[in-house]
Specification:
Number of strands: 7
Distance between the termini: 8 Å
Largest sheet: 3 strands, antiparallel
Number of helices: 1
Strand order of the largest sheet: 3-6-7
Helix content: 10-25%
Structural class: mainly beta
């Protein structure tokens, strides 16, 4: 990890459903709530996408992964992969946001 990058570390608890990702693996990422495409009815604040776009404006060298409900990133054997049934949305300053499909290799984020 390069100097100046902040990261949170977490692991999958033993009680979590088993996946192809070992439960003892550790990943590093800034975490937030699941990425939502819509602004919930009655919510007067900004959308997740607006917040992310503001964040990358202030942090231009960072990638942001908008993980949707029921998805996760698996880091195993030097590879980072999106696990789940829904795509995630990727953000970076100077680039149009784009969708990444489950099973995609995301090793460029490591």
């Amino acid at each position: 990890m390069s100097a100046g990058r902040r990261a949170a570390t977490w692991h999958v608890p033993p009680s979590a459903p088993q996946t192809t990702c070992p439960s003892s693996s550790h990943s590093r990422s800034g975490l937030s709530e699941p990425y939502l495409d819509a602004n919930p009815e009655g919510h007067a604040g900004e959308t997740r996408e607006q917040r992310i776009l503001e964040y990358i404006e202030a942090n231009p060298r960072r990638w942001v992964a908008g993980l949707r409900e029921g998805c996760m990133l698996c880091h195993a054997e030097g590879k980072l992969e999106l696990i789940g049934k829904r795509p995630m949305r990727m953000f970076r300053k100077g680039m149009e946001p784009f969708e990444v499909q489950p099973g995609s290799d995301l090793s460029f984020l490591l």
